[in-house]
Amino acid sequence: MINWRLDLRLLAFIELFIGILMLIPTTLAYRYQEADALRGFLIAYLAIAVFCSTSLILTGKPKTKTMYARDGYLVVTLTWIIATAFSAIPLVASGAYVDYSSAYFEVMSGFTTTSATVLPEIESLPKAILFWRSQTNWLGGMGIVVLFVALLPALGVSGSLLVGAESVGPTKDKLTPKIKNTALILWSIYIGFSFIETLLLLLGGLNLYDAVTVTFSTMAAAGFCVKNSSIGTFGSAYVDIVVTLFMLVSGANFALYYKALSGKLSSVLKDGELRVYLGIWAVVSLLAALKLFTSNTYDTFAQSLRYSTFQTASILTTTGFATANYIHWPAFTQVLLFLLFFIGGSAGSAGGGVKVIRIVALFKMGRAQIKHRIHPRGVFQVRVGQTTFREDLLVSIATFFGVYILTGVVGAVVISLSGADPLTSFSASFLFLGNIGIGFGEVGPAGNFAFLPSWIKWFCSFLMLVGRLELFTVYVLFSKHFWKH
Question: Which Pfam family, giving just one, matches this sequence (predicted)?
Answer without folding.
Answer: TrkH
